[in-house]
């Protein structure tokens, strides 16, 4: 189950990262100024992105796909994703950090999406792993 999560999250984040490079899927950016304004916009009109944000999504997608090859790596991916996305959700709420020092937008709809991702990843990283261990004994 954790391996399926890693694979699905990997595919989703890889596709989202790639979509961010297609101008058709971007609407004009509205938010704090960014130092990195390449590919800046709102993905699907909802989520603020830029070049750095897209590259991070692609990296996370590749990490998830790679991690899906083994149970241990999948658990590590889910736990790492839970911690990382919890931090990103919190950063998105703090005025001085919501653009990651001008590198990538973390504000607006990204906050709730990052928080939801963190919750789902935490379930698979800790809850589902515990369930798997119980069914094996």
UniProtKB/TrEMBL annotation:
Keywords: Membrane, Transmembrane, Transmembrane helix. Pfam families: DUF4383. It comes from the Bacteria. The chain crosses the membrane at residues 12-31, 43-65, 77-96, 111-129. This is DUF4383 domain-containing protein. It comes from Deinococcus deserti (strain DSM 17065 / CIP 109153 / LMG 22923 / VCD115).
């Amino acid at each position: 189950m954790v391996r399926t999560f890693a694979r699905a999250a990997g595919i989703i984040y890889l596709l989202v990262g790639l979509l961010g490079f297609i101008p058709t899927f971007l609407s004009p950016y509205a938010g704090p100024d960014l130092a990195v304004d390449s590919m800046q916009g709102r993905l699907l009109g909802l989520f603020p992105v830029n070049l750095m944000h897209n590259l991070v999504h692609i990296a996370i997608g590749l990490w998830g796909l790679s991690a899906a090859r083994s149970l241990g790596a999948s658990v590590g991916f889910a736990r790492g994703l839970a911690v990382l996305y919890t931090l990103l959700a919190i950063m998105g709420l703090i005025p001085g950090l919501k653009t990651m020092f001008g590198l990538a937008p973390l504000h607006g709809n990204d906050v709730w999406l990052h928080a939801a991702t963190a919750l789902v990843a935490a379930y698979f990283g800790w809850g589902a792993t515990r369930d798997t261990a119980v069914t094996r004994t």
